[in-house]
């Protein structure tokens, strides 16, 4: 048994044992269910081997919802622990593990795949393409993300969770202070998912630059496509920095190198700098597509075109540039000179300008519009004031002298949740509701969706606004408990109630999905929202080839013009369509990455070498493979189009 | 597959053009990767702890040999692509084989260089400087090693399948990769070795 001792969890608790049992039961149920309903072949041939951007996007969506659940449970545990003074629900070690997992999962394994889901599903449709530039690479991206997420998630039952915060600062993250394998999981799981993200960036830059429908110039692209393009560029510049930082961190932990060590010339601040040189642009990688989603929803439900298209594009590009010049504001208190801090204060505050332009553009889009208060629109309308409050507190934090008061307090926690939840979380929830008929062919129930929205918005406000006050009163973040005399008790209890409201909202969202699967009418037509851009010009759900005929574009809102100005989108006749073939190799290779990562976490070198060779064999297989794809014949297209309701021809 | 005959073979289909653009974007990411390594190197170069400095361990001969071999290989692969465009399969293959042999020679010298450093007491664990030095050089060396196998696969495919739009595309993209490794090496040679040897 000595060999297996290293897989034991160093700080077990009843909750972890319960999770172990729950995981075993779930895995058993999934295997049993797939076998009983004879779905293995369906799963393999329709999903695991797919290279279809819509199916890959759907898998991102499902994975993101699962991770939202996991990260949300972590959040509830934290709020429950701090609900009353001197609480004994979690001890300090568990609290460390929970907030570390919460941060990593919410940013890297929930928000990122959720954004990727929309990029995958929407961008090719918005630009009138049949798929992305590299469909096979797209599958590799997804499966690498998925395996990275799985690797990270097994840490808490095998070997121990990371416990050095989602920023994993050195020297805390070094072997001396974080002796469990938890931080190994952090370094390697994020690395694997990050490689997938980098490939997504390459894929979408190429797709957007080269695969737009005829007539769609750059300045006619829909806002969401613009945001996906800018985000992809940020990914290309930011993620390699993370790759190197994680490589160095991994080597420090596995091979005792001295990059961030306390001795032999090591420099712990190098980690903080590299992490945030990636980390700050990462924030914009998430928020820009979120802005893009709002920029699609607001015009649709105001029945007006977006106000200030050019300024929207320019502000987005400017934000992407600035995002690389502000990273030091994450550690104003960590030893730079006042001169350096001042420069980064100014660059940080300047970002409020292009963001403010966007806020005004959304407001002016709604101005005199005929607003329909659907669920996606409610999220978008609530986003504007809430996000603005988060932005204003961001400018407060940007003042480096004042930051000495706010740094590492709950004020900061309130600030970044105040931008991420109304910004990113509202956007992806709005986007899910908005694009649900596009993906699945039926609408989500509006009534339950509105209940979920109100619970989320009120819950969010109750949970996070009190933190501004406790933060200013000096409550430090990441403290697992506080004394009664501190006086933080009442406001923390309010936060807990807010968190419970948010949990109810999650339950309602799941219930909406369940209810709508059971009761929503099918056949909603191609355009249930009376929308404006090209993704609505095809059927719901979208056929494999997206568009039977590639649309021709001569304005910013070609679909709107087709509906109301008699513009002809689809000219010419059906031709046979070339499509890429499915492949199981991306899944197998990513699974080998999982094994490789797991082997590295536990320093099992033989297994690591074997799985690495396996990865190279997969790459070699791809090099030698001859794959011309396949054609969909004109007869098949006609058949599908008639079956789908024959929007055109 | 529509083939456009007014273009060189490697650009002749839409997928080929996508592949080349995508690879340029990938090289952009690679520039950031090595840029991060160089930045970290400059940050840690004087943080030698009790270990040796660059000036104490660097030797000019192996470094010059590595430079000579890699730069020549970059020139030779250029000849290979030229031969490919002329449709001369045999000449192309010969140049590609020479390229890879020169790459192997480079790797041989680099491994030997690492062994020497190791025996002089500069290991991966000695100091922040040596950790960074080995990681920067090692990342480049790993790229060359990977490139060796990639090039080998392409040689086999060209030998078996001839110069087609698909194989020409792969060969051209591989040549971009190989030239890129050369560019990185020029920076390594200048800012790690030359600068390190002349540092006082």
Keywords:
heterodimer; A: 649 residues; Cytochrome C Oxidase, Chain A; B: Four Helix Bundle (Hemerythrin (Met), subunit A); 80% helix; QoxB (chain A); translocase (chain A); Cyt_c_Oxase_su1_BS (chain A); transport (chain A); heme (chain A)
Which helices and strands occur, and which strands form pairs?
The complex is a heterodimer of chains A (649) and B (200).
Chain A: H1 14-36, H2 40-48, H3 53-81, H4 92-126, H5 135-154, H6 182-210, H7 223-254, H8 268-302, H9 309-322, H10 338-350, H11 352-366, H12 375-398, H13 400-406, H14 410-440, H15 446-472, H16 489-519, H17 558-564, E1 577-579, H18 585-601, H19 605-624, E2 630-632, H20 634-643
Antiparallel strand pairs in A: 1-2
Helix pairs in contact in A: 3-4, 3-5, 3-16, 4-5, 4-6, 4-8, 4-14, 5-6, 5-18, 6-7, 6-18, 7-8, 7-9, 8-11, 8-12, 8-14, 9-11, 11-12, 12-14, 12-15, 14-15, 15-16, 18-19
Chain B: H1 14-44, H2 54-57, H3 60-85, H4 89-119, H5 128-161, H6 165-198
Helix pairs in contact in B: 1-5, 1-6, 3-4, 3-6, 4-5, 5-6
Cofactor (chain A): ferriheme a; Cu cation
Family (chain A): Belongs to the heme-copper respiratory oxidase family.
Protein name (chain A): Quinol oxidase subunit 1
Short account of what is shown:
With 649 residues, chain A is an all-alpha fold.
Structure, described:
The complex is a heterodimer of chains A (649) and B (200). Chain A has helices at residues 14-36, 40-48, 53-81, 92-126, 135-154, 182-210, 223-254, 268-302, 309-322, 338-350, 352-366, 375-398, 400-406, 410-440, 446-472, 489-519, 558-564, 585-601, 605-624, 634-643, and strands at residues 577-579, 630-632. Chain A has one domain (2-583, 627-643): Cytochrome C Oxidase, Chain A. In chain A, helix 4 runs antiparallel to helix 5 (135-154), helix 6 (182-210) runs antiparallel to helix 7 and helix 8 (268-302) crosses helix 14 (410-440). Chain A is mainly alpha-helical and 649 residues long. The mean pLDDT of chain B is 94. The A-B interface holds A 133-134, 198, 201-203, 205-206, 209-211, 236-241, 243-245, 247-248, 251, 255-259, 261, 263-267, 270, 274, 277, 578, 616, 620, 623-624, 626, 628 and B 1, 17-19, 21-22, 25-26, 28-30, 32-33, 35-37, 40, 43-44, 47-51, 124-132, 135, 149-150, 153-154, 156-157, 166, 170. Chain A: Its EC number is 1.10.3.-. Chain A: Catalyzes quinol oxidation with the concomitant reduction of oxygen to water. Chain A: InterPro entries: Cyt_c_oxase-like_su1_dom, Cyt_c_oxase-like_su1_sf, Cyt_C_Oxase_1, Cyt_c_Oxase_su1_BS, QoxB. Chain A: Keywords: Cell membrane, Copper, Electron transport, Heme, Hydrogen ion transport, Ion transport, Iron, Membrane, Metal-binding, Oxidoreductase, Respiratory chain, Translocase, Transmembrane, Transmembrane helix, Transport.
